[in-house]
Amino acid sequence: GEDGDCALALYSSILTRQIILLLSPLSVSTTKISSMAVSWRMISNTSNPNFHYSSSSPFFSTSTFPKNPHASHLFTISTTHNLPRDPKLSTSVSGIWDAVTGGGGSSREALIAIRRGMVLFRQGDVSGSVAEFDNAIKLDSRQKAYLWQRGLSLYYLDRFEEGAEQFRIDVAQNPNDTEESIWCFLCEAQLYGATEARKRFLEVGRDPRPVMREAYNMFKDGGDPEKLVAVFSEGRASEYFYASLYAGLYYESQNEADKAKVHLVASCQSPYGLRSDDYMASLAKVHCACRKWEL
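== Tetratricopeptide-like helical ==
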């Protein structure tokens, strides 16, 4: 169902990107890591109001995913191929790090700081989130290459040059990340204008999500946001949400605030925007709050 697919998309990218990061000192083959699929059960001794996804996917077996950064994590790893990728994950992999190293130290603290930063962002404390993300980098400098969350926060603080740098660093590590390519463009459109930003556009691999393939092409080549929304208006709830979100962001890059507002508010008020724990659903709400748009 929709929730199962959401869980699969939500937890895929971190398990390739962060495992590679954490295991790199141990000379583990990147090829082997990137072909892993991880099935895991995260067990918390506290109730969790947000993460109650389940999936029948052969890649994942999931139960309650705790928001508590101090929750205990149990997991198993099995090898398979063609692990799906989606960059929007809202949990750390501190359990994986502990299992590999026998302890976390500053790296574990860095992952906890990232979790705190994500929680603060969801709550609308954008400055506080950046402080936590920066603290994570101080604790473990390797994290910077994977902190797409920091780039998003920097955008909403109008720190566009730093945001673009963050996304470019991340795309260098993950050259198939459609959304970070788009967010780099959004930052640079604010710095140089949309025409110049498009000349600097980061080309990435093919996104498995139809809505994001269309959004990527729209930002890369120019296009019609209304058409993007129309194409996915009768599709899945998540597709309509993402079409509305990126239509609004496209209009913002063109300095068309009124049209941006229509679509960003629509994304927040969509069924997916209202009920999903997707980090980007929180971002849409933060966007409207930063622009002082009523929902």
